[in-house]
Amino acid sequence: MEHVEETILEFDGIVKKYKTRAFLFGARGQDVVALNEINIKITRGEIFGLVGESGSGKTTAGRLIVRLEEPERGKIYLDGNEITGLKGKISKDYSRKVQMIFQDPYQSLNPQLSVYDTISEPLIIHKIGNGKARENVVLQTMKSVGLSPPHDFAHRFPHQLSGGQRQRIAIARAMVLNPEFVVADEPTSMLDASMSAQIFNILLDMRKQFNVTILFITHSLAAARYLCERIAVMYRGNLMETGPADDVLKNPKHPYTQALIDALPKFGNSRDVNRYDTLLRSERVPSEHIGCPFFLRCSCADQIKCSHEKPPLMRLGDSHSVACFYAEP
Amino acid sequence: MALLVVDNLSVGYQGQKGYLQALEGISFSLEAGKSLGFVGESGCGKTTLGMAVMRLMPSNGFIRNGRIIFDGEDLLEKTDEEMRRIRWQKIAMIFQSAMNALNPVHRVCNQIVEAIVTHSPLIDKKEAYEQVRDLFQLVGLPENRIRDYPHQYSGGMKQRAIIAMALACNPQLIIADEPTTALDVIVQDQILDEIKNIQTELNISVIYISHDISIVADVCHHIGVMYAGQLVEYGAREEVFNNPMHPYTRALLSSYPTLTGEKSHLMPIPGEAPNLINPPSGCRFSDRCAEARETCRRNHSVWLELAPTHKVLCHQCGKNCGQ
């Protein structure tokens, strides 16, 4: 994979705001900034991890890629072609190339469609193949996600299946179109540990088999470490740190990443890991200026600089970048 | 003397398809001031265990046999009225989804006051309100939010309010059923810390129920691993994590990604948990176990003591040790 580093997907200064509804009395509608000037480049064939707490904007980023949302500002490119504001046939072609695996397999599958119908639906929508060819593709895809023998599952309905099996159907449905890019939005957050491991291994296998690029959205740093080559850590819509997964997790530079690692339950041989203690026990009083997004909770913050100025994403190493004034290489 | 002794507890549910053995032959004991964690996949009976100790079974659930001895008294022999007095006064529970455990149309303080007044009739509302103030301080909630409604709270704050409510009547035992499942890692860490501090401060025993092995490993003195309605391994935290003996415990540990150490290939557990309406006659894990022999499938597994506090329910482990 190392030989050619070809960018497949690029976020260029993406801003996305949601408007909250104004109440009849009291507060006016305020904008919630879900993504604030995000720049990301994802290389072909890699698994890129987007890590953050809930509300950090990671799901919004995924939804922008599959065009469930349109950005406020900025551009998204796939293979060098701009995809924001596509219409008609080109838009449909694009949606064949980019697929999404949703978080909750208990809600993302249509309960009235059998497994076979669920997986073959995308082929019908995009008018790919005819009856027999479709059947082959569907059964082949089912086998590759571990639903084998496929004939046993083809005519079952979602309610007859376990969570892990449902999520495998969701993966098969995404993979059946042979997409170039897949957004996997917390695919294991509803599953047990042993089931999650199966899904992780299927994703790794998919990447190998179909040479697909995956954006893996997760709140679990450990899962990101297992799956991803590179990760980006987000906080309240801002990119805080990005780089190779091993680098970022072994040697985190941003106080927020350090706080996240501190907060993980320690067990087994990770008990003796030293703590960074970068999280303030009580939040600071917000100032009028918009500074570093993590200022209110950061113990390393400088009262003057950090509260007034938003630190830009700075390069530290080859590909390791951090948005903090005080990060040292 | 142990605060809670559960001896050979069996619980089942009567369903449309037959009788489901949710728990079979569970035995453990818990000292005062200690914490005990139960881990297992969904459907292994860990929530049922918590509910059985509280005797809060749904109408189709039955405690078939066994004894639950709390503070020297058998809870299964209590009448419903006596049990009502023990609940919350002596045993409190932190329920699974904090998001839904609070009543949305009452102020948070009034809900906790209600819990106090209901269970200790001697306290009037004013005193109870003062107690709520203290509780808020104890669990780290700002006092000026005391009269808020639940929807004004964040997820972590709701969870803290639930913990405050569990502590309201000074219980001796708290059962925490997935106390942090819906929370972010940083909030989760804070909540677990909070429970740990309160536990040592007030000398309360805690039973944690979780599917997340890392949480249990972080906070508990003793750990019980559950599989398909049975306890399969039980021991002190270090014993279970440094020297896991049951194949299921080992499989569970190796299917869990970690942040440090060697990045090894995760080994998912093949197959699915057995149907508990008609459980296999031998070891319940035998269908998914790489080390299973013919004897495992035929005979009931037996408990094997590896150390005074570490025991495991497996045929093969004994042989491996003997060699």
Description:
The complex is a heterodimer of chains A (about 325) and B (about 325). Helices cover about 35% and strands about 20% of the residues of chain A. Chain A has about 325 residues and is of the alpha/beta class. Chain A has 2 domains: about 5-250, P-loop containing nucleotide triphosphate hydrolases (Rossmann fold); about 255-329, no CATH class. In chain A, the strands form 2 sheets. Chain A has an 8-stranded mixed β-sheet with strand order 6-7-8-3-9-10-12-11, with helices on both faces. In chain A, strands 2-1-4-5 form a 4-stranded antiparallel β-sheet, with helices on one face. Chain B is α/β, with parallel strands linked by helices and about 325 residues long. Chain B has helices spanning about 45-55, 80-85, 100, 110-120, 125-140, 155-165, 185-200, 215-220, 235-240, 245-255, 295-300, 315-320, and strands spanning about 5-15, 20-30, 35-40, 60-70, 75, 90-95, 175, 205-210, 220-225, 230-235, 305, 310-315. In chain B, the strands form 2 sheets. Chain B has an 8-stranded mixed β-sheet with strand order 6-7-8-3-9-10-12-11, sandwiched between helices. Chain B has a 4-stranded antiparallel β-sheet with strand order 2-1-4-5, covered by helices on one side.
